[in-house]
Write a structure and sequence with these properties.
19 helices, 2 domains, mainly alpha
Amino acid sequence: MIQHTTGKVKQLTEFPPFYPIFLSIFGGENGDYISIIRWLNAILFSLTIFLFYAISHRISENFITAMVSTLIFASFKYNIEIYAGAMSETLFFLLLFAAFLLIIKYLKNDHRKQNIIFLTLISALLPVTRYAGILFVGVIWATILFIDQKIPFRKRLPFAMGYLIFAYLPIGLWALSLLSKYSKFAGKSFFFHLSFVKSFFTSFANALHVATQWIPYVSEYPEGWISIFLKIFCAISLTTIFIFPFILVINKRGTKGEFKLAFYLSTNISLIGYLALIAFMHSTSSPPIDIIDRTILPLFPLILFSATSFISLLKRNRKRHVLSIILLFIAAIILRYNFMVDRPYLRKLSSEGIGYTSKQFQTSGLLEAIKNLEADRILISNLSGFVLFHTNRYPIFIENFPHYRYGDGTSYGEKEFREEDAALIILHSEFRNYYGDFSNELYRMATESLIIEYEDDQGVILSYNPSIQP
């Protein structure tokens, strides 16, 4: 929960609890969270890359393959972006990769009882860090119970059931708490409608469309034969990689109980399961989730793990040397593209910053003016997260401004603004981005005759002028 500047308490039911708890361990009540998050992200990034390499090396048993796969993951722009802010994916990926490494050790029959204990503890944290962890816990459970073939089913069953109960226990208690208090889970209501099937496949296609923009050079050549060729080539390659382990199982060409094949199968099940989860959430939840790069980001490391497993299981092929040369050539193209995309982004990030901590805000007097507002004064803003991030005070959030002077009507926040001397904080860039071409005219109508307490290029602080009647 969080307290509004109005004194009311807002329940934040949209997000699982572990990442905020994790941050609070290091920051406490009065910590400098901007500096703390930067250090934590640097540590989390390093540990995550190390675990990614460890997994890749375990399944490929080849230094070059593991290193190339790790470099591709580490240099992926959307992966770098999550470490530029306070995002729960940074902790989630670390926990997910730790779980993957432990399941690999478990499948190799290395200290099974010890690994299942650690795997259960880490898996229990996945869903309470990001709700997507619910899927991965289910896949790991299915891997233990059905895919692993090294020990008889009757001996696998106690491991699997113990894992299932304890791994889902924290998220189960959290879900029951939310549903009993608010009749919602993850801040959303779920419903099924007659057009669900159509909506599901439309959402599934939208997720795939977003993922196609990750293909090198597709966004640079959105039209023409280059883009079409790259999409077709990637579609054929990924389809081959996806179906290959199932062909091995059907033809019984994989060694029974081989941990590489077992992990390969579980990775591919995770891939299709995650896409299905995104499509399901987008089709049935209200409000629907956004299908953006950040939402589908877990697909990228899964694709790399699947590709690494594919290469590893092809080593027996007599033409593997030719294939290795082709794959190295493709990897070189991907790394070159990542370098070209990352270099200007990292330069801008280094010189100007990003988001709420960017240089334009740090050098602006707006931040100081917001912090100097009276501690008991009600705040209103079109970018509530910005105000909360820098002041730890949650303002009334205004998404849709009226087409008249703000404070003269009865829409959300206007009464407080008019009668309780609330401060209206408008971030110019957010206002322009949200309203587009109509922003200048709407801004003029909404702020006309209001008292300007502070203004610069980044934003303005306004108060109501009671002497001018509507």
